[in-house]
From TrEMBL:
Protein name: Glutamyl-tRNA(Gln) amidotransferase subunit A
Domain Amidase: 22-463
Protein's UniProt keywords contain Protein biosynthesis: yes
Reaction(s) catalysed (UniProt annotation): L-glutamyl-tRNA(Gln) + L-glutamine + ATP + H2O = L-glutaminyl-tRNA(Gln) + L-glutamate + ADP + phosphate + H(+)
Lineage: Bacteria, Pseudomonadati, Pseudomonadota, Gammaproteobacteria, Candidatus Comchoanobacterales
Broadest EC class assigned to this enzyme: ligase
Keywords: ATP-binding, Ligase, Nucleotide-binding, Protein biosynthesis
InterPro entries documented for this protein: Amidase, Amidase_CS, Amidase_dom, AS_sf, GatA
EC number(s) given by UniProt: 6.3.5.7
Species of provenance: Candidatus Comchoanobacter bicostacola
Family: Belongs to the amidase family. GatA subfamily.
Subunit and interaction comment: Heterotrimer of A, B and C subunits.
Active site location: 75 (charge relay system), 150 (charge relay system), 174 (acyl-ester intermediate)
Purpose: Allows the formation of correctly charged Gln-tRNA(Gln) through the transamidation of misacylated Glu-tRNA(Gln) in organisms which lack glutaminyl-tRNA synthetase. The reaction takes place in the presence of glutamine and ATP through an activated gamma-phospho-Glu-tRNA(Gln).
Amino acid sequence: MHEHSLTELSAAIKNKTLSSVEVTQHFLNRIHKHENLNAFLEVHEQQALKQAKWCDNNPESSKDKPLFGVPIAHKDIFCTIDGHTTCASKVLDKFQANYDATVVKKCAHAGMINLGKLNMDEFAMGSTNENSAYGPVANPWNHENCPGGSSGGSASAVSARLAPIATGSDTGGSIRQPASFTGITGIKPTYGRISRYGMIAFASSLDQAGPMTTSVSDAALMLNIMCGYDHNDTTTAQIAVPDFTKNLNNDIKGLTIGIPEEFFGDGLQEDCKLAVEKAIKTYQELGAIIKPIHLPNLSFAIPTYYLLAPIEAASNLARYDGIHYGYRHKDAESLESLYQLSREYGFGKEVKRRILIGTFASSTEYSAAYYKQALIAKKIITNDYKKAFTEVDAILTPTTTSTAFKLNNKDQSPSSLYLSDIYTVSVNLASLPALSIPVGFDHKNLPIGMQLISNRFNEQTILQLGHAYQRATQWHTMYPELYKG
């Protein structure tokens, strides 16, 4: 059952070959069987089975709902009325939201069953899922390796087939990097495609929700549900949402794919380079035109991102002060010490590090030297992409510089982890859509991902290209032997 696509599961439920209760119970059993991954922070078993039973008893409600009765799991960055929403932080331990995030509400309206909440890096800050207050998540391909971050729980759950689909969020690569590390499909849509209402903020001008799935076709189905204008989020685009599944099977012959030389230089693991180069040859065989291009200012992406994102994070996280909700330190003797102790003991190291960076860079004394310069660099990076898309339909790159990192790697400094985001953060800075799909394995049998980037609000092109590749290959169908039982 866990090897079926979303389309197959939905069809089986609609024609009553399977019931929603059977499908939901099957995934709940798998979640309990594989708790050692630490992918789930909460399992909403009773609520999920209640929802599934309602779907089975009300088949007439499935009209125009292609994923009616199909289970999903949500990253714990999305507010849900059921259960807790912690953002994997002690500062929000046992916090219960009194509303559902728009993404959660849309999935529920589509008749999807919420299995529970998924682990993540605290406040979506991290690349390994080791920054969670509730422990690290393991990579299903090798438990000694991380699943990536910050959507590590989502990636691990889908990779191990504990959930047929999961929601994620991507501020600088947090959908695409873990998708690459765990051998699944993940898409970050254009900024503004999906509402951020009820998604706990990290960096408001960069955050974007998206689906993490086993295939491009499943991702396209989910985008149909998740996308659209929301009056609760004024940054959502007031443009029509296309049917993302409509042109998936179109011939890609004649489409031009740009290959930026800057993504294939020093620092790229040889196995990753060879796998992506082989994927490029596959596209040539499918009739796509391959064209070398330049994105000359890629080197500005990391310092730009790690100034702008922490500045916004410092502002967004100022609200967690121990007063209205969340963690409150019991030994405070004054209002000032309550603020100080609650934040000191409520936040983890990485979150505090980024708050300090952001506060420093946005201070009156240093904002001209750092913040204003970062905004200029962001514009330069955006213009590089604009120029590239006058010549090509899409851009193809490795998703990451290497395969999954080891857990508990004491030699890996925060700055080295920041540098590993070099291939993903520029996409967020330019507000572009990007897709990561699996293209092979390294010599340690760890998955390798390839990234496809297109112009703003042109998700259809990368979905079409990704689907064409997955029809010609089998990498996306592979998942770890340990989880096939």
